[in-house]
Amino acid sequence: MARSELRPVITLRSTAGTGFSYVTRKNRRTNPDRIVLRKFDPMVGRHVEFRETR
Fold it and tell me: Is the pLDDT of residue 1 over 90?
């Protein structure tokens, strides 16, 4: 099966400035804009916002 452009691989970068990132996929049809998720940053030791980078 070919990888779909409908669900591209994205990088979520921490807004705490630690440089920590997560890699995931998103559905472009339901989330066309850049997404912001609140996830755990182990460098800071707490949950912070992670923004989509390209």
Answer: no
Residues whose CB falls within 8 Å of the CB of residue 21, separated by 6 or more in sequence, listed in order = 11, 12, 13, 14, 50, 53
Q: Which two tokens stand for residue 33?
A: 């804009």
Residue 7 in tokens: 């669900």
CA atoms within 13 A on the CB side of 47: 4
Q: Provide mean pLDDT across the span 4-21.
A: 94
Q: What domains can you pick out in the chain, each with its CATH number?
A: 9-53 (2.20.28.120)
